[in-house]
UniProtKB/TrEMBL annotation:
Family: Belongs to the AB hydrolase superfamily.
GO molecular function: hydrolase activity
Domain Dienelactone hydrolase: 20-235
Keywords, alphabetical: Hydrolase
Name of the molecule in the record: Dienelactone hydrolase family protein
Cited InterPro entries: AB_hydrolase_fold, Dienelactn_hydro, FrsA_esterase
UniProt-listed Gene3D superfamilies: alpha/beta hydrolase (3.40.50.1820)
Superkingdom per UniProt: Bacteria
Alphabetical list of PANTHER family matching this protein: DIENELACTONE HYDROLASE DOMAIN-CONTAINING PROTEIN, DIENELACTONE HYDROLASE DOMAIN-CONTAINING PROTEIN-RELATED
């Protein structure tokens, strides 16, 4: 691991002041970068640590915000904000573009070598950037087999990897089948990994507040999903030697 530096970044999006977490690897050279999206609850130390881990590997990483600096631990409040957001691709793209602009203007970022990795709502944002034609090197999602508007997946220019728990009632088999059919029809280079026995948000360590039904942590699959993300980046966004 290498020494990293981190800082908080503020930027406007969705009528809010977003507060992201930027992690930079050691050195002064330009590096491949990862836009990292959180679950629907919002940016937490879980995503900050993931951004730091990516920086330790050698990537510039921005963990972006969804809720204007707030973490929505109340499930009803979270759903009240996230469900309309997930139903509005243009809003999701706006949130994604605002964070992407911050990442691209960071001097350490190679603006032509960026991937989007996201969990839940943050993963849906990354997919919408791809459907909007953004030049990404890879899109990786966990718990985000969200379908898009008809025909727009054809604008995705990079490989897409999606991970989902087999027992996830939120990303149910019918929904993930529709997602993979959309990717296949569009000619996308796609992969789907189904983690046996895992629920929704299986990657997220347990929290000290109520959660929506169907959520549960699975330590072994969480570790596997992280390795799958790192492997995707190594394939599509290799680091300089």
């Amino acid at each position: 691991m290498t020494k990293i530096t981190t800082r908080t970044v503020e930027y406007p999006a969705d009528g809010l002041t977003m507060i992201g977490h930027l992690a930079l690897p050691a050195g002064v050279d330009r590096r491949p970068a990862v836009l990292l999206g959180p679950e629907g609850m919002g940016l937490s130390d879980v995503e900050r640590r993931r951004a730091d881990a990516l920086a330790e590997l050698g990537y510039v990483a921005l963990a972006f915000d969804l809720h204007g600096g707030r973490y929505l631990g109340d499930p009803e409040e979270m759903l009240a904000r996230c469900m309309p957001l997930l139903a509005d691709p243009d809003r999701m793209r706006g949130i994604g573009h605002a964070a992407l602009d911050v990442l691209r203007t960071e001097p350490r970022t190679d603006p032509d070598r960026i991937a989007a990795v996201g969990y839940g709502t943050g993963g849906a944002v990354g997919l919408e950037l791809g459907r909007g034609g953004v030049n990404l090197r890879a899109i990786g999602t966990v718990n985000a087999t969200t379908p898009g508007r008809p025909g727009e997946a054809a604008r995705i220019r990079c490989p897409v990897w999606a991970g989902v728990g087999s027992e996830d009632p939120i990303m149910a088999p019918a929904q993930r089948n529709a997602f993979t059919a959309e990717m296949q029809a569009a000619g996308v280079d796609w992969r789907l990994t189904v983690y046996g026995g895992a629920l929704h948000a299986f990657h997220h360590p347990p929290v000290d507040h109520p959660v929506v039904p169907g959520v549960g942590y699975h330590r072994q699959h969480a570790q596997r999903a992280w390795r799958d993300v790192v492997d995707l980046l190594a394939e599509c966004l290799p680091l300089p030697q």
